[in-house]
Amino acid sequence: ILNVTMSGNQSNTSENHCIVDNNSLIFTLVPPYILVISVLGIIFNVFVLMVFCLHKKACTVAEIYLSNLAGADLALVCCLPFWAEYTRKRYDWPFSESLCKVSSAVIYMNAFCSIYFLVMVSIDRYVALVHPLSHERIRRPLYAKLGCLFVWGLGLVFALPIFIYRKLDFKPQSNLTKCSLDLPSKNQYLAYEVITIIFSFIIPIIIISFCTVRIFQSLNNRLMEGLNSKKMEQKATTLILAVLLAFLICWVPFHVTKILDMLRNTGILKCHIALIIVQQISVYFAFFNSVLNPILYVIAGNNFRRRAKELSKQWNNKTTETFSLMSTRITTLRLTKSQATL
């Protein structure tokens, strides 16, 4: 099952009681869905990165975090076509073991990094609105870039076990080659899952929830006091809150089913086909977040739309200048040839 690529090894008991039928709609509907998510995610996130990175104006602290979030989303959706093919072939891995390791690690790493970029941007909004004066010195682009490097490094560390222990496992009874996580013991698997849930879900959700509540309180206080001096900050916060809400809606079901899956592997919960279906839906719903974020930038991001328009005008001006220069050179060449003929 695709959730194995992100939630780890499955016990033999669970495999015997949770077998997806070969005629399941999963094998018909999921591959094209993943491919659509991949194509849209690549196009949209490349557009976001172009707007943030190619614009002549330097990015703000929040935009640095959002551009890194777009980079994480882009890397994630680039690996999804391999899993679309894996699902289409009834979970028979058709590629090499190295690709099994790398694609799994990249998906895991970027899913991990995404939530911590949102943690960073939540803290930035919290500081900007709740402590605008006393903490202004820490809201600098250099610190934001160093924070992003730290998040990428942390994501790489947490993805190392995926890269090391993800292996191809041939099943003679089904004649299928699985790409699965093969940790040395069940206790190590459970320890890894618990640590992952704590660091990739519980801790980030606590921080984001705290910051979001304080941000709403600050915005309400400003409205009640009739303060409009920070209108730009409030507009930026609207976009951030929209991205946070979309992330929570898309990813919380995945992490909840991940916890249920861990309980199933410990024997606390019995396996049921309904749990498998919910797991499938939650995984694919989580992937949709990589497409949803760029759409939110356009809908709720006034500053992003302005950047996109300015970049478009900048390119149009360059294109006009290029065509004008080419036209001038062609005219000069024609005049030179006509004079030479005369």
TrEMBL record:
Gene3D superfamilies: Rhodopsin 7-helix transmembrane proteins. The keyword Membrane applies. InterPro entries: Brdyknn_rcpt (IPR000496), CCR1-9-like (IPR050119), GPCR_Rhodpsn (IPR000276), GPCR_Rhodpsn_7TM (IPR017452). It is found in: Cell membrane. GO terms for molecular function: bradykinin receptor activity; C-C chemokine binding; C-C chemokine receptor activity. GO terms for cellular component: external side of plasma membrane. Its main location: membrane. The keyword Protease does not apply. GO terms for biological process: calcium-mediated signaling; cell chemotaxis; immune response; positive regulation of cytosolic calcium ion concentration. It is a multi-pass membrane protein. Keywords: Cell membrane, Disulfide bond, G-protein coupled receptor, Glycoprotein, Membrane, Receptor, Transducer, Transmembrane, Transmembrane helix. PROSITE patterns: G_PROTEIN_RECEP_F1_1 (PS00237), G_PROTEIN_RECEP_F1_2 (PS50262). Residues 44-297 form the G-protein coupled receptors family 1 profile domain. The chain crosses the membrane at residues 33-52, 64-84, 104-121, 142-165, 190-216, 236-254, 274-299. Belongs to the G-protein coupled receptor 1 family. This is G-protein coupled receptors family 1 profile domain-containing protein. The lineage of its organism: Eukaryota, Metazoa, Chordata, Craniata, Vertebrata.
